[in-house]
Each structure stands twice: as C-alpha cells, then as structure tokens.
Amino acid sequence: VSLRGEDELAELSEHFNHMADSIQGNIEKLENFTGAFAHELKTPLTSIIGYSEGILDGIAADTERQKKYVGIIHSKAVDMNELLNELSEFSKLDMHEIPYHFEKIDATEYFDDFAQETEEELSGDGADFSYKNTLEPETEIMADPAQIKRVLHNLVSNALKYCRVDER
Q: What pairs with residue 142 in β-bridges?
C-alpha cells in the first residue's frame, strides 16, 4: 500500500506494509522448515521402502537376513516417530503450550539411571558412551523428568548423528 503523508491513513499504510513484510518472512521460514523436515522424514522412509522391497522381492530369502531387514525397518520407523514427536513438541513450544510437571527428583539417581539406559541402548550400535557423575549423593532438583529426559535423548541423538565417523 502506497500512501504518502503524515496522517493516520499513511501511518496505517506503513503498519500494513510492515505486517505484509513480516508475513512474507514467516512464509519463507515455514517453507524452509517444511523442506528441511520433509528431508529428515524422507531419509528413514527411503530405508523402510528399500528394506521392505528387499523382503518382498526375495533378496532377503533366509530367515537371518529377513530378521535383520525387519530390525532395520523397525529402527527407521522409530526414528520417524521420534521426528514426528519432535515436530509436535516444536509446535507446542511455538504456541507456548508445553505442559511442565515439576517435581523434586534425586538428580544423582536420575542421571545415573539415564546413563545406564543409554549405555545399554547404544551397546548394540557399536557406540561408546561414558558418563561421570560429579554431583553430591542425594542431590535433589526441581524439574520435569520427562522434559529433562527428552533433552538428554536429543543431546545423545545429535551426538550420534553428527559425530559418527564412517568406518572404512
């Protein structure tokens, strides 16, 4: 809208143009986010399709290979589910709707349990996991255990995703 002057209509025109620019910027951000998210979903989906076709086409004829393929399909489906959960959480975060349930927890016990679970989960992936607890015994904190766990899982997941060295 092009209005010149210093009256209320010119001021309204200026605010309208600013709002239009802001909307255009948000649309571009949403398009970039959508493209990146689609790419993140496409990676595990491509694996699921490939390995399931391998089973259907008879490439995985023996039971051991079928079991391996089904395991990979399951793992990739879990990855997709995690991505969708992250999208849901991101949406809630953007809308300021994440519910927090704070409670007093024993931090030492909580982090030790998380480390033990993570070490067991990663042992089958050939990844090394180390953890050192420097908290005083029976240290208590007020926190939302589910949200803390989500953050810790994201940290470990990102470490695996971005720090993995290709074996040659």
A: 104
What does the block give as tokens for 98? 């994440």
Q: Which helix (H) or strand (E) holds 103?
A: strand 103-106
The answer to whether 107 and 140 have CB atoms below 8 angstroms apart is yes
Tell me if 107 sits within 8 A of 139, measured CB to CB. yes
Distance CA 84, CA 64 (A): 30
Cα dihedral across residues 138, 139, 141, 145: positive or negative: negative
What are the pLDDT digits (tens) for 118-138?
888 887 677 888 889 898 888
Q: Tell me the residue length of the chain.
A: 168
**pTM of the predicted model over 0.70:** no
**CA–CA separation, 11 vs 45, rounded Å?**
51
